[in-house]
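#onboarding

Welcome to the new folks! Below is a worked example of what a typical request in this channel looks like: someone posts a single protein sequence, and someone else replies with the predicted structure as tokens. Don't worry about understanding the tokens yet, we'll cover that in week two.

Example request:
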Amino acid sequence: MSATTYETFELRIQPGPNNLCEALVTRSLAGDARVDFALPFGDDELASFLWQTVGATRHFGAAHDAGPPMDVRDFGVKLYQAVFGGEVGVCLMRSLDEANRRGAGLRIRLRIDERLPALADLPWEYLYAPELVRFLALSDDTPLVRYLEVPRSAQPLPVSPPLTVLAVLSNPQDVEPLAVEREWTLLQAALQGLEERKLVRLERLPAATLEALQIRLRNQTTGGVHIVHFVGHGFFDDAQNLGGLIFEDEQRRSRVVLAATMGMLLHDHDALRLVFLNACEGATSGRSNSFAGVAQQLVQQGVPVVLAMQFPVSDRAAIALSQEFYRSLSDGLPADAALSEARKAIASQGIGYEWGTPLSLYTSPSPRDRTRPRMPSSA
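Example response:
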């Protein structure tokens, strides 16, 4: 049975002594804990894992020189044992036991110091706990979310129904076509019941242009937009540390929209609660700058929650992710638990290890922990 209430296990990773990293438990049901650690694999080994498992290089090293690749479980075990070794792992297990006793799940909140951008670029979503015999992110009892250290902390964000979901479906004629119409059909099906009960309003932007998006965000006659759901191509340029999305122009040719431009456009829309970037590499960031990616820059600009992809993603996985994510939201799960359900849907369909591709980013919470984005439960 899916958890609907959560306790918090907060882990901060920061520079430690002697060129090590420090994992520090700053909030839990079992007190504080810490451990110093080094990454359990080298750049070449990591590059081989990323390239042969998820088709991404991330420029960690020369993958062809790395030898036999790790599988996902081995990678997750090594990373878990390094970071959650000793008292940090004990603290996690005790916190999980206490959360279960209270009938709650345990939200694992990961904060990575901005001085460690290479660690922020790791696929933490593949953490595997041998004690539990499972990947943490594949259970909505232990959703894994990332928080960014930004000056502006998030406040409680109540939403009165209907919750407005704006779909931006970008499919320019001069790039590889995507199955956007199929995803639109599945989005409609996933939200149909809620629309009939007037709890959700699903809109489609008439044209996937930046100008059309700006006009819709400015138009308050039908209410504000609570969720922007973007479907299309994304990119990250390692050489320039720049990320962006591919919109359409008036002739339906591709138009590059950099992360900074997208952040500027969304910053002033106070109704916005969540941005869903169903685009390749929407969450990719540079090894020298944790905030270089699209998702990271949107969070910097005050978007409370961003769901994005850290690796290239197939159409099949992207569609399964969207459908199950919104179905789970409609069942009353918070966004991070809904993402865990969506991961399970991808994994159960046998779509490789793409379930680890999406990640969720949150702004830093205020001292009074913010309300997680949910579908409204009543009119």
